[in-house]
Fold:
Amino acid sequence: MSIEEAVRSYIRYYDDLRPETVDGIDALVAPDVRFKDPFNDVRGRDKLRAIFADMFTVLQAPRFVVRDHAVSGRTAYLRWGFDFTLRGRAYNIEGMSEVRFDEAGLVVEHIDHWDAAEQVYEHIPGLGALIRLVKRRMAH
Structure:
């Protein structure tokens, strides 16, 4: 499988992700895949599947939309949005993923880059005010 085909398959998986498609990740990632985001740093298909399954348990209507991508060698860079509702409040997280593929076209590492402080923590009562204060004091 070419890197472009592997990237397209991976993007399609995220665009179509639903509770009943979570297990489909097994065909796209290496057995010892590493997944890292601001809240998790895990290795293995089982742990990655557990993160997705938990996402559908905790959040209402979670949905990824990959907006753009670029490929450099065996690494893809995905720009995405993630929409969900939590306790009646709608959220949108914008981020980038750095996704490395092996020679067989399987994902060996997926690292998400997004600002958890601005996009999540600032919305938590009390904590959000403290984070905004720190940001103001550090701004030029």
User: Anything to note?
Assistant: Residues 36 and 111 are 5 Å apart (CA to CA). The chain is about 30% helix and 40% strand.
